[in-house]
Amino acid sequence: MSEIRATTISDADGTGPIALTKQSAAKVYASYDLKGNSAYAASLNNSSFTDVSTGKSRFTFTSSMSAVSYNVNANARYEINNDDPAQSQFCQPTQLAAGSVQVGTEDNAGAGNAEDSRYHTIAIHGDLA
């Protein structure tokens, strides 16, 4: 079996890393907390994160998407007791733009109540501009 090991893969000119433009890798990723300190646990291609209001967060991308037809996968879980992330919440993108996305999170009771959680993730697939 063949194996390739590398720390950096350069562009065709050899001047920098390759751009993830026409590949199927996630172009934006974040793992974040809206309940407590409103902070990232990890992120990729995010220039800023804003806690808009209860259950709403906005991500501004470092590199914009080519169009607003990108795919957003957003997930959230809340704690039942003692920070046990056992229950899923309803989580969806509410405002898509080429350079940002807003995500809304609601309780899982179906009542449509906005709710914050410690355990949020977002992954975006599509083409960068």
Can you tell me about this structure?
The chain is mainly β. Helices cover 0% and strands 47% of the residues. The chain has no helices and nine strands. It has strands at residues 28-33, 39-44, 46-53, 56-61, 71-79, 85-88, 90-97, 100-106, 119-125. The strands form two sheets. The chain has a five-stranded antiparallel beta sheet with strand order 2-1-9-5-6, with no helix packed on it. The chain starts with 27 loop residues before the first strand and ends with a strand. The mean pLDDT is 83.
Task: Throw out a few tags for this protein.
mainly beta; elongated; five-stranded antiparallel sheet; four-stranded antiparallel sheet; 129 residues
Brief overview:
The protein is 0% helix and 47% strand.
Encode the helix/strand succession as letters. EEEEEEEEE
The assigned structural class equals mainly beta
Identify low-pLDDT runs. none
Main sheet makeup: 5 strands, antiparallel
Number of strands: 9
Query: Which of globular, elongated, flat, extended, rod-shaped describes the shape?
Result: elongated
Question: Strand fraction band?
Answer: over 45%
Q: Treating each run of at least 4 consecutive H or I residues as one helix, how many helices? A: 0
Rounded average pLDDT: 83
CA-atom Rg in angstroms: 17 Å
Query: What is the distance, rounded to the nearest whole angstrom, between the alpha carbons of the first and last residues?
Result: 36 Å
Give the helix proportion (percent range): under 10%
Strand order of the largest sheet: 2-1-9-5-6
Oligomer: single chain
